[in-house]
Amino acid sequence: MKLVILDRDGVIDRESAAYIKTPDEWHPIPGSIEAIAALNQRGFTVAVATNQSGVARGYYDEAILQRIHEKMHHYCERGGAHIDFIAYCPHHPDASCLCRKPAPGMLHRIAAHYNTSLQGVPFVGDRLTDIDTAIAAGATPYFLDRHLISEQTLSPLLPSKFSAVPCFSDLHAFTEHMVFQSE
């Protein structure tokens, strides 16, 4: 099985400091759905691991979160893509749960769902906590920074433990890298 795990907000859809609280507020990043479709076409199973503390904060409930995910699935379907599994953490950051990133619980849940190891599985995120999560779970971290001019401009800004983490400007650039590697 070729598995890739993606963060949601900031990787697939536009992130909001005010949280994505309704389906109307969810908008894909240009090229992200096409990137997922390209991964699917190359035989990758695509899973999502996303912190959703807006549930614990009372900004939206799990029923609304499911409607947001239904909209994401609908966009994927229209774009010839599909997301195979979504793991989310609804807990508050102060809850000390085992699933909220940077804890590896969601990635372990995905691995258990597919009865597979996370060794070598790409985990794509746009925050340093995503990199920490991948490392803690034994997955391979990839970092997205939409403002990235070149890998050399970001590398000095990362803590030294992240210096070897591949950086890409967006999900499309990461996907091109993965497709090239898989051929």
Cα(first) to Cα(last) distance is 15 Å
Percentage of β-strand residues: 15-25%
Please state the average pLDDT score. Answer: 91
- What's the story with the biggest beta sheet? 6 strands, parallel
Low-confidence stretches: 149-154
Order of SSEs: EHEHEHEHEHEH
Decide which structural class fits the backbone.
alpha/beta
Which percent range fits the helix content?
A: 25-40%
Count of helices?
6
Across the major sheet, the strand order is 3-2-1-4-5-6
C-alpha-based Rg, rounded? 15 Å
Tally of extended strands?
Answer: 6
Shape: globular
Tell me about this structure:
Helix content is 34%, strand content 16%. The model is unreliable at 149-154 (pLDDT under 50). It is an alpha/beta fold and 183 residues long. Strands 3-2-1-4-5-6 form a six-stranded parallel beta sheet, with helices on both faces. The relative contact order is 0.18. The chain has helices at residues 32-41, 62-78, 105-114, 128-137, 151-154, 171-182, and strands at residues 2-6, 44-51, 85-89, 122-125, 140-144, 167-168.
